[in-house]
Design goal:
6-stranded mixed β-sheet, 5-stranded parallel β-sheet, globular
Length: about 900
């Protein structure tokens, strides 16, 4: 007997030998429904087989049968046919269930027979599968019940916190006498999969190889010393009794002995590094002097190949480090540069000091030989690795020098890498400029749990290298771009997780770069950090830093921003409270619910953070020093960015007067401390749902839509105060959309929305209004004394930004070629913006319809002007009308 669902009386009677329900439940084995009910039923129980009864048109029946879950159509009152169709559906369900069980059984056998250990947890991090290999590797009894608590407390093994929501993590761990390699991967629907592999033998083999190299190197030193000493005695003591040929061969033997001695020392250094025993003696030193001495030491070798060596420094550069070891690094880089630079070539060495960042310095060594291929830039630092020979790369070597150099630099807390150059090869290393008092080695920098792709855009080489070194030390992959077009092209192609922009750029306005990155459809998911002018906050940067750069704060901010990006949270909440405990609790509760959260400890910090973070909701404490919650809310609401953002007041004061004052300021809710975490979440969710339902905001720009615009204008006309109404429209957007695609055109509209927000905040006044009608049509309301500043600033800012949305060839030509709406191929110039404004002082308007009609006429006048234009009350304020 099966459990069926049916509501038609004759169907229920025909299937009386089964249990027939009139409510759809998950336990139902088959359903008998009319065609009109099919969609609703499938939405509730999508996996249940269905038999259709009653009338159904051919199209509906064909689509239903093609779906695969509908097992026939029965006419009304045909009980025999109905029972046959239901039997066929039940048989198909039984067969499908048996097939699923067989697949599960086969999958279980496969997992249990794997040589690698497998542990799978559910969305609560509780273990629900552990195969025999995992039990054996972890030393767990075959019959023991394994839970997450057991793994953590008994074995000290709890890798589940390593994994981010969308990325895997790797770790080596010791369990008893075994060394295991673990890969921890998230499951999309919740939970984690851990794969364990025993690498004990491999680690022991590596250890034996390192010990062998160390022993052999030590054993070679003694005979080498004897051979070198004997050769020196012969060459120095018996020089008179040697023929020229004998002296030549003995000198060759002495030189080879010296080279072999260098190789032995390199092998010993590598062995010490692998064992963590590379000794370094830290003391105050002048890095510029160390590098200059190395350059002077190699000048003779360079002159032998007619190679010119240049040396530059930015004043005295003092650090704390091991001078001999750092000289070893520079010697290695210069030796390689001379080897791989063609005769008559150039080598440039530069030491840059703590100008861009007070805590970091660096050295670069460039030569104009063949460049190292990008694919080999990291491999050259591995032991015994060399780049394949080219026209100039014909010299040999052990392939140990760069591996040792990396160990030395990283032992100083720095980073070394190959920097891609237009010509030749450049090596760069950066170091922390520790205070002279601190003679201890620097603390290791924490490595990010997941490496990110980062783009640094700067024209200051020293600053770019410092930021790259800091980010590489955190484990990120970093690309430096010095040209705006190259940077945008690289970002659009590679889509980095983080873009760092130096606002000292001279090639173009760096603020425009931030704007493009944040709005271009191919890059707008990137997070942006700006270094330089604090005004970058007004252009959408996620964080900004002044110069000289505070490296620790920069590193922490990048880590926080990337972590927030990894959350992929769609809704952002700003928590403002002077009590650290309250902020911490709210953050914990909201982040667990999937929100991205930022904190501010006072009202002034909240206003700055809100400009940068653009929250979807603000939780605001009332009683705070300097600027209380009421004053903060008033200032926040005066900003166009904050006009639509829900604010929930949180306070220990529950008096009616405080609540009334909060609601008059536009509060969405008022929560009295102490509060329950579930209540907090419920109120936040309710406020966000109400905002989405009531504001009618544009989904593209999140500005008020047509209904809200009409209501706002009607309200202001009733107040009969003088106002200026502005209409903003783009020119040539359709051609741009046809040529570059809807995604990039959508980015331009988003850009215009944010541009208008910024202009209104900068050139407008308190209480101004901004709305998005549809497409590329926007409106704004300000006062007559501000309208000209707003209108002209919109035009000039747009003209500065929009060219970067075009490719460089199109931008240089000044137009694109595409078909117009009549199918004619035409040239369309770079997009411009038309702004038309009306003031109520000259012609009072009684209704929204009157104002809209007049604005449409004014817009026609503005669009008739070539280029970006601003017209007010029939007067052309910006732009030149075409000749009749």
């Amino acid at each position: 007997m099966a459990i069926l669902y049916a509501v038609t009386p004759w169907v229920r009677a025909a299937l009386a030998d089964h249990e027939v329900l009139t409510e759809p439940r998950p336990t139902v084995d088959c359903a008998v429904v009319a065609a009109a009910e099919l969609a609703a039923f499938r939405g509730r129980l999508p996996g249940v087989p269905v038999v259709l009864v009653g009338k159904a048109d051919a199209a509906t029946l064909s689509a239903a049968l093609a779906d695969g879950a509908v097992f026939g159509h029965v006419a009304d009152a045909d009980a025999a046919a109905l029972r046959l169709a239901v039997a066929r559906a039940l048989a198909a369900r039984t067969q499908a269930e048996r097939r699923v069980l067989d697949e599960r059984r086969r999958m279980t056998l496969m997992v249990e027979s794997m040589a690698d250990g497998v542990i799978i947890t559910d969305d609560r991090s509780e273990v629900f599968l552990i195969n025999p290999s995992a039990r054996r590797l972890l030393g767990v009894d075959p019959g023991a019940t394994v839970t997450a608590k057991y793994l953590k407390e008994k074995l000290g093994f709890y890798p589940f916190d390593l994994v981010a929501r969308t990325h895997s993590a790797r770790e080596e761990l010791k369990v008893g006498d075994k060394t295991l390699h673990s890969i921890v991967s998230p499951v999309p629907d919740g939970g984690v999969v851990v794969v364990l592999r025993d690498i004990t033998e491999w680690k022991e083999l590596e250890q034996r190889k390192e010990e062998f190299v160390s022993v052999v190197s030590h054993e070679l030193r003694t005979p080498l010393t004897s051979i070198a000493g004997a050769l020196d005695i012969v060459l120095q003591t018996y020089v008179g009794g040697l023929s020229d040929k004998q002296r030549l061969y003995l000198s060759l033997a002495r030189d080879s002995c010296a080279k072999l001695h260098v190789i032995v020392n390199d092998l010993l250094d590598v062995a010490r590094f692998e064992q963590g025993k590379m000794s370094m003696r830290f003391s105050p030193l002048a890095l510029d002097q160390v590098v200059e001495d190395c350059v002077d030491r190699f000048r003779a070798s360079a002159e032998a190949k007619t190679i010119a060596i240049g040396f530059r420094q930015s004043g005295e550069v003092r650090i704390v480090g091991d001078g001999d070891r750092l000289a070893q690094v520079v010697n290695n880089l210069l030796s390689n540069a001379i080897k791989f630079t063609p005769d008559g070539g150039r080598i440039e060495v530069e030491v840059f000091g703590p100008g861009f960042a007070a805590t970091h310095v660096g050295v670069s060594v460039w030569n104009n030989g063949d460049p190292i291929p990008e694919a080999d830039c990291e491999r050259v630092f591995d032991k015994f690795e060399q780049v394949a020979a080219t026209t100039t790369r014909r010299v040999g070597g052990t392939g140990l020098g760069l591996a040792i150099s990396r160990a030395i630099v990283e032992g100083h807390g720095g980073k070394i890498w190959v920097e891609q150059a237009p010509i030749g090869t450049k090596f760069v290393f950066t170091l922390p400029a520790a205070p002279i008092e601190g003679l201890a080695p620097p603390e290791p920098v924490p490595v990010a749990p997941q490496a990110a792709q980062v783009l640094v855009i700067a024209d200051d080489l020293a600053g770019a290298y410092v930021m790259k070194g800091v980010l590489m030390a955190c484990g990120h992959r970093v690309q430096v771009a010095y040209d705006v077009d190259d940077a945008l092209a690289w970002a659009r192609e590679r889509k980095p997780e983080l873009v760092v922009v130096d606002l000292g750029l001279t090639a173009a306005d760096a603020a425009a770069i931030v704007e493009i990155v944040k709005h271009d459809p191919e890059t707008r998911k990137c997070t942006v950090v700006a270094v330089g002018e604090r005004s970058a906050l007004l252009h959408g940067a996620d964080a900004t830093f002044a110069k000289p750069l505070d490296v620790d704060a920069f590193r922490d901010a990048c880590a926080r921003i990337l972590c927030e990006r990894a959350r992929d949270a769609s809704l952002k909440v700003l928590v403002v409270d002077d009590d650290h405990g309250i902020r911490m609790i709210c953050r914990e509760v909201l982040e667990k619910a999937g929100y991205a959260v930022r904190e501010a400890a006072n009202g002034r910090a909240a206003l700055v953070e809100a400009k940068r973070f653009r929250p979807d909701l603000m939780l605001l404490d009332v009683m705070m020093p300097e600027l209380d919650g009421f004053a903060t809310a008033r200032a926040f609401r005066a900003d166009p960015d904050g006009q639509l953002t829900p604010v929930i007041f949180v306070s220990a004061r529950g008096q009616t007067a405080d609540k009334v004052r909060a609601f008059k300021l536009g509060a969405e809710d008022y929560l009295v401390k102490p509060f329950d975490s579930q209540e907090l979440l419920a109120r936040v969710e309710k406020a966000l749902r109400r905002r989405d339902r009531e504001l009618g905001a544009s989904p593209t720009t999140m500005l008020p839509g047509a209904n809200t615009i009409e209501a706002e204008i009607e309200r202001r006309l009733v107040e009969r105060r003088e106002l200026a109404f502005g209409y903003v429209d783009l020119d040539n957007l359709k051609a741009f959309n046809d040529y570059y695609g809807i995604a990039r055109a959508d980015g331009v509209i988003r850009q215009l929305g944010d541009l208008l927000r910024e202009v209104m905040a900068r050139a407008g006044g308190a209480g101004d209004f901004l709305g998005h009608v549809a497409g590329d049509d926007f409106v704004f309301i300000t006062t007559p004394d501000h309208v000209d500043a707003v209108g002209t600033t919109i035009c000039r800012t747009f003209d500065r930004l929009v060219p970067l949305y075009y490719s460089k060839p199109d931008r240089d030509r000044g137009y694109i070629e595409t078909w117009d709406r009549y199918g004619v191929l035409r040239r369309f110039p770079i997009m411009t913006v038309s702004v038309a404004a009306l003031t109520t002082g000259g012609a009072p308007f009684r209704t929204y319809a009157e104002l809209a009609a007049a604005a449409a006429e004014a817009k026609k006048r503005a669009k008739a002007i070539e280029g970006s234009s601003y017209v007010r009350d029939a007067w052309v304020i910006l732009g030149k009308e075409r000749a009749a």
